[in-house]
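Q: I'm writing up a methods section and want to include an example of the input and output format. Could you take the sequence below and give the corresponding predicted structure tokens, formatted cleanly so I can copy it straight into the document?
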Amino acid sequence: MSLNGKVAVVTGAARGLGRAISLRLAAEGAAISAWDLQLEGAEQTAAMITTKKGKAIACACDTSRASDIAAAVQRTRAELGPVSVLVNNAARSPFAAFPTITEQMWDELMAINVKGPFLCCQAVIGDMASAGWGRIINISSSSAQTGSSHQAHYAASKGGVLGFTKALAMEYARKGITVNAVPPGFVDTEGLREAPVDVPAFAATTPMGRPGKPQNIAAAVAFLASEDADYITGHTLSVNGGRYMN
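A: Here is the clean output for your methods example:
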């Protein structure tokens, strides 16, 4: 599944899924532009790649801000080349009882989780169209498929990502660009450990009885970014240990 010669942007790359995805795509040969609000973490991800003779840069970027994205894209093109793979991973996953979700909380989450992927796609899809080749992988969530108590705003935002993925896939299917979604299930990341969730207890309720690993998501993303997946678009590849079965 070689990605030699490809340039991949991974958002939310400072830790967790974003770091695992960045490392896997780099192992497949892609040059990585690691974007995150937390520049130090993104720099650590890039350093993990370059110490293994890969090519990577880190960009401080708030993906809900078009100006930040424009600056990160400009630097990526200047140092690595046109973008050929985009992984929209940056997101927040807060918990709140429905009556306590304010309009501001709703708007801020939609700006990060839905507007962010929209802005990132708009910023780089021209590179892909010009090349006649591109891969966009949007990280959604199994919470959009099953629902999630105390996460009405989060589940709604990730459901929006699934609809956005299908619409964009249809629009660009004849331009050599595939657009797919990966909704992770219960994956053991720093974010999960920080959430108000009893990890062992919830894992026990799933068919496999255990949480997934970030590398499981990274493997699915690497496949969808590869030539092997060139006839797959508008697809939702669930990686969730059986939490939701298509």
